[in-house]
Design brief:
Elements: H1 13-32, E1 33-39, E2 45-50, H2 52-56, H3 77-90, E3 92-99, E4 107-115, E5 123-130, H4 143-153, E6 160-169, H5 174-188, E7 193-198, E8 201-205, H6 213-226, E9 232-241, H7 248-273, H8 278-287, H9 290-298, E10 302-311, E11 317-326, H10 337-346, H11 350-367, E12 372-377, H12 378-381, H13 384-395, H14 398-401, E13 405-410, H15 426-431, E14 436-439, E15 457-459, E16 465-466
Parallel strand pairs: 11-12, 12-13, 13-14
Antiparallel strand pairs: 1-2, 1-5, 3-4, 4-5, 6-8, 6-9, 7-8, 10-11, 10-15, 10-16
Helix pairs in contact: 5-6, 7-8, 7-10, 11-13
Length: 467
Amino acid sequence: MKVQPGVPDPSDPILLRRADNNERFVAFAFAAADFVVEVEPGGEVTYAAGALRARFARAPEAFVGSPVHDMVDPLDHPALDMALLVLSRKGRLSPVLIRLADRERTQLALAGLMLSPLGGPVRLCLTFSVLPAMPDLPQMMSSLQFARTAARRLQATTPYDLGLVEVTSHGSDAASLGIAISSALQTVVPHAVASEVAPGRYGLLGIEGQSSLPVIAAALEAALRAQRVAPVKVTSRSLLLSDDGLTPVQAARALRQALSVFARSGAAGLDDAGFAGGLAGYVQQAAAQTGVLRRAITQRRFELLFQPVVTLADRKLHHYEALLRPKPIPGCPFGTPQEFVTLVEALGLTDELDLAVVGLACDAALVASVPVAFNLSGQSVQSAVFRDRLIRQLSAHPACRAGRLLAEMTETAEVEDIERWPGPPPRCAGSMSRSAWTTSGRARLTCGCCVPLPPTSSSSTAPMCRA
């Protein structure tokens, strides 16, 4: 009897059993799943099937080779990263709620199983399943994630508006008011991305094409009054997300500074800080402070506080982490240490500040009983000139030769070609002897130098030590 191509030979019981098992597993998979996706541990899609066309108007095979993050709402990228990490470490992922990157931001249950066939590559098999009567999720993004999302909008060819909203109320406790505002925002701007950058102060993205910001503020105030919130007042201010000729680093740092100032001082503080002219206006005004800031760095108008880090197993002191604390600088206003660092970065003085901090950390390590850790900006480390200066400075200091230093490269999410940085440059690694070189800042699992580390130590919240 002639066997048709693709149809198992009915006379071969083994082939029939295999075909029956395959059909059974496919039926089990799609009994609950809307679609299934197979990814590499780094998150790249290697196989996709199911109702992807209905969800995204794209064929399943169109997703092969792209990050699985493309299927998930940016709000839930941190949750997706954590899910992939859990799946890679434990081999199984129990269902977690996640939102898709479709127009409706559909909520599905994500589950997974890790396959590691003998001699074959590890594969992560994910199922996205519909859940009945799922509750609405609050659409609040963390302030850090919101800042990064807003920074990505700076790269768009069309300028975007960043909406800033202040809500003041007398007689409402902060927790109840926050819940009421979150609910009201979902009603007034259901498709916007919102974040509470400080109590009563909110950032909004994705309001283009909707009502103007003053209309949104008025509607939000009315919605809060409808919820019988105590006397409430809502004010608003927009900030155009446009680089206006700034470098990507300048625009990103100016945006970060704007959010920090708004969180600390509200919309009124933005004008005082120089943001009346937008991001470019702020950088232009701050540029006049470059000389003052450079002299302050040279004269060491800052100090390092040393935060003890202890091991969890025995609570013994492991090392100190050096924390920058600037002193007041006449003619150069800033509110917090982070605002000082952001201003330094926007004005291109990061190399000078990093090397000054390294010098103080090296001196402190000579008299400390344990190693001292200091930060290096990813912005600085990309410069070959800076790396050469750093290596010469470290190689000449006895604390480094004794292996009493720990270096951490921050802001690796902004480092180009991060795969080229699995560790320090060879000469630096040799000069740092036993010292560690770590990286942080990028949450994506595709970053080769970021690996999950066991929680062996913890920063103490005890009073910090001065050098």
